[in-house]
What does this fold into?
Amino acid sequence: MSKKGFSPEFLLLIAQTLVFFGVIFYFLPRLTSKNGNYIADPFTSDVKKLDGETHDVIMYPGTSKYELPSGAVLAFGRAGTPESVPDFIYGQRYNLNDIHNVNYLPIYNRLVTYHNGYKYDITNEKCETREKLDVDVMITEVTKCYLKVQSVKEGFPLTESNEVSKSFKLTERGDPIKGLQSGDEKEPLLYVYAEPVRIQKNVIDEIYLSPGSDWDVYMVTGYGIETIRYSAQDLWNKLVKMGNAGEQKIEVTVDDLSCTNLNVAGDCPYFTEISFTVTLYPLEDGAAPVVILFYN
It folds into this structure.
């Protein structure tokens, strides 16, 4: 009498099915949906609380999350690039869907900030990286970062602000504007980020940008964070745009669009340089709580 059993093909099918459902049940709880955009939940470990005044912590992309005494959170929610760093979140969760209500700051070097009756001085001492094969190219990704976190119970200081203007220039093949040269803790405009872009009009008079469809100026002041966005047409028309960084009004003025590559007819086929000015206006009520004291 022959001995009955499962065929190799049937056993392979069972194994593949188990693997499939295992993957689904592992990743499904880590996905959240908001406005149709699925965002991978970066936190796969328990939340750790940091009590006391000084801590040295090691943070790993996708796994590390620390809650601070004020309810703010240190999280490492981004990974896969050489620029990935931990973030300071003013609350429990990222606000990712509103450029005018950004509630976190990446800790590139040092952040001194206030939140709910506490003052934090956080330094990114170093980050380690590794080379990794991604499909058919080698990429650099951050594997961990070392932070020094100092906290003290201290309320917001109230300060006044005068009108301040700073001018910048971007060139298409140049570097983005990232940060400011000043290391003065009294500098009201702490940080600016804007990327080079080309502005061009095609044969049917459509204006477009390359790369991307919008041009953003991201700014951090002592009173908050703001992003001012330009469409291709806005930039072509050199519009003046206003926003609010906390309680402070902020303005971006496109001063000039310049051409560096004339064609044989002496015409400008596209603009490759942007000159713009960021202006911070005095506070309407005279003084306001400082949220961010130092950032670079």
User: Anything to note?
Assistant: Residues 178 and 281 are 22 Å apart (CA to CA). The first strand starts at residue 31 and ends at 34.
